[in-house]
Amino acid sequence: MPKGLIQATPSAARLTRSLRDIGYDFVSAVADIVDNSIAAGASEIAIEIEFAGSESYVLIADNGRGMSGVDANEALRFGTRRSYESGELGRYGLGLKTASLSQARALTVVSRSAQRARAVRRTLDLDLVERYDDWLITEGPRDEVVRRAEELLGSSPGTVVIWQHLDRVLPSSGPTGGWAKRRFETLTRKTRSHLSMVFHRFLAGENRVPRIAISVNGEKLDPWDPFVRHEAATQAMAPQEFELEHSDGVGTVVLHRFILPGKRTFSSREAFEAAAGPLNWNRQQGLYIYRENRLVQWGSWAGTRGIDEHTKLARASLDFGNELDAVFNINVAKMRVSIPSQLKQMLERPISELCILADHTYRRQNVEHEADKAEDEVATERKVSEKVSNTSSAELGLALKSAAIQTGHYDALKAIIDLVQRQNPGVADALGFT
């Protein structure tokens, strides 16, 4: 070490304690481990969330390349020295450790590479780290859970990640009770739903990504497509591309916009309910932001506009590659990004166009629904007639905006709207132009 430099190694006990609160919840922590499995070339990933009171555990097994003992040591290093190539899901070299320890006090890796017949195991135990206040890993005991991991590996290459001592999952008072068991059941359901959404492109093998199979407690997951492109009534708008500068050059961001069908035009009631998603219709509208085809953020318009009941049928995908990580300021948990202000400005118009069309679709279906009900009830017919009369001007305004967008003349319509607002503000208000 050069003269004048003072080494200030951080306290292992204190730092690991802090890193446990980096921002993961259970499902996002599992998803981060799945990222590692995909990066290792796995085509099959099996997750077991096993309730056994204080001995409960989680296993995440894959058939990827596996690791040698040296590789396993490096995998359990905070801030691994390995580099990440273009197209990889990894980023900081922290995910395996921070995701696992956000939920459990003991992380064990059991792995076999093609070059080694015997599986290796390594354990990072917070109790041991805190006892010695040092960055320590061990070979760990070969307990029943490790034997279960070896059983899942069989004789082929692959890796099993084990979470034990689940102090962030189980209640400290009563880990064997009914509440704890119900919590595991709820987490299992949420994990299925979350992974089906976050990795839907990988589950479907679309967009030039390798197809993978994921199961949770033996149940194979189906992809959940936020844009229900299989529905005949889904409308897709023309894609748009934007260029953003980064430290090594220029990266491309791609926007795809979709208007989902209203309830009456879905293929079935079940399909409509499934399309609502984990957050339900209103909160599932907005931008779905993908990094290397992996969904990292959803459920809002990322600061470009607010959530609105009338635009709940509007959803859009925004894709970027890992060369733009610094520009999007992606966090360690790969759960949040920040839209650069330059891009946010470029997105305002296409998102506005999408929401105008989605608003038009939503209102039109509501009016048609009310009209259908009116055919059966005379009293309802009177109310509907009044409603249609009161809203016909606004509907006309929406129809004009929709037609202008679809024919590419929205700029001309905006000039007309500005003139009408100045010369006939009452008409502009009636048409919904204010």
What does this molecule look like?
The chain is α+β, with helices and mostly antiparallel strands and about 425 residues long. It folds into 3 domains: about 10-220, Histidine kinase-like ATPase, C-terminal domain (Heat Shock Protein 90, 2-Layer Sandwich), CATH 3.30.565; about 235-340, no CATH class; about 375-430. The protein contains 15 helices and 13 strands. The strands form 2 sheets. A 7-stranded mixed β-sheet has the order 4-3-5-2-1-6-7, with helices on both faces. A hairpin with a 6-residue loop joins strand 1 (about 45-50) and strand 2 (about 55-60). Helix 1 (about 10-20) packs antiparallel against helix 5 (about 125-130) and helix 2 packs across helix 7.
Number of domains: 3
Strand composition percent? 15-25%
Contiguous runs where pLDDT drops below 50 for at least 5 residues: none
Helix content: 40-55%
Determine the structural class based on helices, strands and strand pairing: alpha+beta
> What's the CATH topology name of the largest domain?
Heat Shock Protein 90
Through-space gap between termini: 68 Å
Average pLDDT across residues? 88
Based on CA atoms alone, the radius of gyration comes out at: 26 Å
Largest sheet: 7 strands, mixed
